[in-house]
Amino acid sequence: MPALIPRVLLTLAACKLVAAAPSLTDILSNHANLTQLNNLLMNQSSDFLKSLQGQTDITFLAPNDHAFLGIPDTDVLAPAFQNKDYAGDITNILKYHVLPGQHPSSSLSRNGSFQFLPTLLTDGNWSDVTGGQRIGAVLQGDDPPLMVFTSGLSTRSAVTEQDVDFEGGIIQIIDNFAIPPMPFVYTVDQYNLAFEAQGMLSFLGAVYSIPPINATTASLPRYLNETRDLTLFVPSNLALEYVSGTLETLSPAALNDILSYHILGPNTGGPIYSSDFINQTQLPTLQGSNITLTFTSNSYFVNSARVIAADILIKNGVMHVLDNVLSPNHTGIRGLNATTYTQAPVLPTTFPAGQALNSSAAPYTTFVPDFYVSVSSISDVVVQTETTAGGGGGQSTAFATASSTGKHKKSAAGSLCHGAEGSGWLGANMGVAVVVTVAGGVFLL
Ligand SMILES: *[C@@H]1O[C@H](CO)[C@@H](O)[C@H](O)[C@H]1NC(C)=O
Ligand SMILES: *[C@@H]1O[C@H](CO)[C@@H](O)[C@H](O)[C@H]1NC(C)=O
Ligand SMILES: *[C@@H]1O[C@H](CO)[C@@H](O)[C@H](O)[C@H]1NC(C)=O
Ligand SMILES: *[C@@H]1O[C@H](CO)[C@@H](O)[C@H](O)[C@H]1NC(C)=O
Ligand SMILES: *[C@@H]1O[C@H](CO)[C@@H](O)[C@H](O)[C@H]1NC(C)=O
Ligand SMILES: *[C@@H]1O[C@H](CO)[C@@H](O)[C@H](O)[C@H]1NC(C)=O
Ligand SMILES: *[C@@H]1O[C@H](CO)[C@@H](O)[C@H](O)[C@H]1NC(C)=O
Ligand SMILES: *[C@@H]1O[C@H](CO)[C@@H](O)[C@H](O)[C@H]1NC(C)=O
Ligand SMILES: *[C@@H]1O[C@H](CO)[C@@H](O)[C@H](O)[C@H]1NC(C)=O
Ligand SMILES: *[C@@H]1O[C@H](CO)[C@@H](O)[C@H](O)[C@H]1NC(C)=O
Ligand SMILES: *[C@@H]1O[C@H](CO)[C@@H](O)[C@H](O)[C@H]1NC(C)=O
Questions:
Q1: pLDDT tens, residue by residue, 136-153
Q2: How far apart are CA 84 and CA 340, in angstroms?
Q3: C-alpha of residue 160 to centroid of ligand 3, in Å
């Protein structure tokens, strides 16, 4: 300790006594809950760490040790870590955790509305969303409100420690990795299993049941897979089951019209997240006719179908689940009723009276493709994981390397001055006692 003091004083002199926000490495190497992230960034992903160190105005969602424990249980992350693809997949997963600009908890509204914030994930194998793949952010509850991020497959990452200042911006420490939004087919398949009441396999099967109209027109599957900034309103399995008798009498061209009336056309100015919904707006569909958004009964409706699940993020945009099938022949807002959530289907129902709806009996599911969309190496691996599903033990073993713990010391010299290059944050903290962490100890300046 006596040897350290003169060095600290020297360093402070060189800094002209300007208080410093800690560097990213200061925080990583000293935080008891960030040991795994510190290992990863110091060792395998040091290039990514360097790229962060050059940033001056970012929000970094830092997965804590609990988040690393959860990796073996995730389809998307586990293969990336098993493959040790640090330069590729893992870098892209980490980029999804970096947001341009500073997003403290105070920047989110307390009314429970989501924001969809751009991230640094722009690699074409991972994102077809203009401006960087989005992540949802919201405050939940009060006193104090919990900051929550939502990502692909409706994954929830709660912030365990909010608004940690560092020289490059703000760190939000999260208890779960965010999952980059995955392709449409894969997401529908996964979502169907996890949230059966809002299952969408029936719509997926219907899309795959229609042959391409002609050689020059992209088939719906291709459109959904390849269109950038896509917005999809997907009727639930139950919604399709309810009118299945009518749908099955339609020609392929009429069914194509119905389905493409649930898909917004290109040039809508980016995916339309729930935060972009505006009462009484019309949006153009791929089919050609408009749909109308209406806010009533505390819900958004598309024509007269209620949005029962919003903002399921996919690689190339966003999906919202509806409780009724839409038709371009019924564009009106039919029977909206402020006292009930459920509106009458616009297509004739042929469902026998008294028979209970059963999502498992929804139509078209035999057309669901038995392959997963493969747009990046990680999706290829997911296929392998799926086909060998059944034993999670192997994954845990394979992952042991990445989850081994380690304790690290940072060098005190040098890092103390980094914050002097920062701007606004320093001014705001002038005159206040500033805590600087040095080689495991704490100095009050
Ligand atoms: C990096 O790897 C080395 C060797 O495997 C290990 O001793 C160390 O704890 C790891 N973590 C850091 C932050 O250096
Ligand atoms: C919630 O607050 C945000 C930001 O103040 C605002 O844009 C949004 O319209 C509000 N939403 C509701 C439902 O009041
Ligand atoms: C560490 O992480 C755990 C699990 O996410 C959380 O419960 C705990 O509050 C965290 N501790 C600190 C000091 O942030
Ligand atoms: C293909 O179908 C589209 C949409 O119905 C139509 O506009 C186009 O003229 C058709 N092309 C050919 C070559 O038939
Ligand atoms: C809409 O109505 C027209 C005229 O009755 C009919 O030809 C067409 O098939 C209908 N389209 C759908 C999707 O029901
Ligand atoms: C569709 O909506 C746009 C506004 O988004 C409007 O200009 C257009 O007239 C609408 N088309 C029809 C047929 O109502
Ligand atoms: C939305 O528009 C409908 C139809 O004009 C209206 O009845 C309703 O009050 C509006 N909702 C809000 C929240 O303004
Ligand atoms: C709205 O729903 C309530 C409850 O189901 C029903 O009593 C009422 O008649 C409905 N009103 C309209 C206009 O459909
Ligand atoms: C729904 O259908 C599935 C498959 O046909 C059947 O196994 C299940 O018991 C049914 N559920 C209900 C609630 O009827
Ligand atoms: C989606 O597009 C990618 C890239 O073009 C292609 O590799 C993949 O096979 C397509 N998948 C489907 C289901 O069309
Ligand atoms: C996207 O994936 C393909 C196939 O795995 C690979 O060859 C290509 O380099 C990747 N592109 C980028 C930008 O990483």
A1: 999 998 788 999 999 999
A2: 52
A3: 6
